[in-house]
Design brief:
With 285 residues, this protein is of the alpha/beta class. The protein has helices at 22-33, 54-63, 88-93, 112-125, 141-152, 165-175, 186-192, 234-242, 249-265, 271-284; strands at residues 8-14, 37-43, 68-71, 85-86, 98-102, 105-109, 134-137, 158-161, 180-182, 195-198, 222-225, 245-247. It has two domains: 4-110 and 253-284, Rossmann fold; 113-247, NAD(P)-binding Rossmann-like Domain (Rossmann fold). The chain has ten helices and twelve strands. The radius of gyration is 19 Å and the shape is globular.
Amino acid sequence: MKSSSDSRLTGLLGRDLQGSLSPALHNECYRSLGISGLYQPVDFTRRNIADEDLPDILASLIRLGFSGVNVTHPFKTAVLPLLDEVSEDAMRLGAVNTVVIRDGKTTGYNTDWLGFSAQLTALDNANVTVQGPALVMGAGGAGRAVIHALLKKPVSPVLLYDPDTEQAQATIAHFGSPDIQLVEDIEAAAAESHLLVNASTVGMHGKGGLPLAEHLIRPDHMVAEVVYFPVETNLVQLARTRGCNIATGDIMCLDQALASFILMTDLIPDSGKMKDFFTGLLVKS
C-alpha cells in the first residue's frame, strides 16, 4: 500500500489537446509503478481560457500542489518569463516543454531535443555511425530541437531547408552557429548529406506527402522522421524500400515524454513496458 507521500499530480497546458496521447501515457506510467498519480490536461480552448491567463493558471497549479506540467502550443515560449529558473538547454532553444515545481519554485526544461537524441542513438545502435552533413527539413520548433541535438552529439554541418526562408533564417540567427547553413537547393543538399531529417509536418495523418522528391533518397542515407502519427509515414515507407537505416518518430515522442515524466515526478518507469503501451496507443489512434 503506497502512502500519500507517493502520490503525484502533473498536467499539460496548451490548446486543442483532444488528440494528445500524453495523458494516457503519463497516467499509465503512474499505474505501472503502483503510484497514486494523476496527469491532468488543461485545454485552454475547451475551457475557454484566454492566453493572457497563463500566469494565473500556472500559479493556481502551484498552489494546488502540482509537481510539474508539460507545456505545448502556444505556450512553449510564453511560459519562459513566468519561471524562476530555466535550464541551459531550454534557454538555448528558447522554448520550454516541461515545468518542474518544487517548494513553490518553477524550473523550465526542454526534453524535445532529448527525444531526437534517442533517435540518433537508435541509428548508432543499428551499427551505423551518424555523421554529417545532415539535411534538416523544417525550421520550426521541432527543427530547433533536432538541430540542438545534432550540435550536441556533435553532427555537422547542419543544412537547414524550409520553404519559409524567413523562418529558416530566424532559426539560424537564433543559434548563431557557423555549423548551420541555410540551403535553398534541396536536391544539392540531399546529394551531399548522409542524414536526412524530416522535422516538418509533411507526412502527418491527414496530410501525407514527402518532404523531398523520391529520387533524392539513396540506400546509403540515414533517415530520421519526427512525425509519429502515423509511424509509417510516406518517407519512412519509401526509405525502408530503399534499404536506408531509419529512426521513426515514435522514438522521439516516447523518449521526450518519459524524460519529462522523470523530471516532474522523480520516478523512473520501465521504458520497455512504456514502449509497448505507446505502440498500442498509436495502433488504436
